[in-house]
Amino acid sequence: MSENAKADVSSYSFEKAVAELESIVARLERGDVALDESISIYERGEALKKHCEALLSAAENRIEKIRLDRAGKPQGTEALDGA
Length: 83
Fold this sequence. Notes:
Blueprint: H1 3-6, H2 14-30, H3 35-62, E1 64-68, E2 74-79
Antiparallel strand pairs: 1-2
Helix pairs in contact: 2-3
């Protein structure tokens, strides 16, 4: 992976990473980018994709569902996946 692709994306918010990733996809789909640059921005896109996946995974791990008692009143919380 090139240095440009490795440029630190760890501080990016999910929204910023997705916006840059969408921009990269649009450029690649237009096909008006030189081959060398296409490879470079594709690698950058891969880094952004991995960062977004990590952020989504972290968010999923924090989500909890509310447990209700038999009367339907909130009783507490538990992991969303029941684990």
